[in-house]
């Protein structure tokens, strides 16, 4: 599953790169991230084959070396992802809804990578005080908030593409992408909340209901307001009555 996720992400990055203004370093950068992420998947596969943990595993010289190289490869790959993310806010020759999908998706991908570094640091701290590096508090799953935003770069452009295929105009498509972006951000916040309050992935508690209630109200009010605005813009001038 990790290999499939990495492969899909590489394909998405290649697609995004094709939308950007080309730079001389691009070919080298894309080859680098492609090779490095493939090697990372191979190293994690080797650890699985050896029945060894793929993360936070420093109980032998070999495991420590694999851990070090995996983290190094990921760090360099994230630098390339950050470069693509910042460049995506430049000129893009795509409709407004796809622009938002690309920029929002890349920003969330980068955010997911940065959350990965955060949980890596927390995990090592947990190890140093003889606690499990995979959990926070009693039941918080550290990798949970890391994984949620990583695939926004597939989800948001897919929303844009599907809404175009269904014949929606640009304003409606943009609203749909904005809604998708809002929910991915909300789910990422949910993952962070669950983890850093020491709760398991889908554990119910009062704060969770308050969080989702607030998210749904805010997103719902925004949707109603935006949709009303779109409808008012679609009213033909001949339908407006002269009250004077």
Give a quick precis of the structure.
The chain is mainly alpha-helical.
Please, could you describe this protein's structure?
- The protein has 244 residues and is an all-alpha fold.
- It contains eight helices and two strands, in the order H-H-H-H-E-E-H-H-H-H.
- The chain has helices at 2-19, 26-49, 61-87, 96-128, 143-147, 152-165, 170-196, 206-233; strands at residues 135-136, 140-141.
- A two-stranded antiparallel ribbon has the order 1-2.
- The longest helix is centred in the middle third of the chain and has 33 residues, at 96-128.
- The N and C termini lie far apart (67 Å).
- Residues 235-244 have low confidence and may be disordered.
């Amino acid at each position: 599953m990790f290999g499939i996720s990495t492969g899909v992400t590489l394909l998405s990055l290649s697609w995004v790169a094709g939308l950007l203004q080309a730079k001389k370093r691009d070919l080298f950068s894309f080859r680098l991230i492609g090779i490095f992420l493939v090697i990372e998947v191979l190293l994690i596969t080797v650890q699985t084959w050896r029945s060894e943990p793929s993360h936070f595993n420093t109980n032998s010289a070999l495991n420590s070396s694999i851990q070090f190289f995996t983290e190094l490869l990921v760090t360099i790959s994230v630098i390339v992802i950050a470069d693509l993310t910042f460049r995506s806010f430049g000129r893009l020759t795509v409709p407004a809804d796809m622009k938002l999908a690309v920029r929002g998706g890349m920003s969330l991908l980068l955010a997911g990578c940065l959350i990965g570094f955060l949980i890596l640091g927390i995990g090592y701290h947990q190890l140093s005080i003889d606690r499990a590096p995979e959990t926070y508090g009693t039941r918080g799953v550290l990798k949970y908030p890391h994984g949620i935003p990583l695939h926004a770069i597939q989800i948001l452009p897919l929303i844009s593409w599907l809404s175009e295929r269904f014949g929606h105009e640009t304003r409606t498509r943009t609203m749909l992408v904005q809604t998708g972006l809002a929910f991915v951000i909300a789910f990422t916040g949910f993952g962070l909340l669950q983890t850093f309050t020491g709760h398991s992935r889908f554990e119910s508690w009062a704060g969770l209901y308050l969080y989702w209630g607030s998210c749904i109200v805010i997103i719902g009010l925004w949707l109603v307001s935006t949709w009303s605005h779109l409808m008012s813009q679609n009213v033909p001038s001949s339908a407006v009555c002269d009250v004077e």
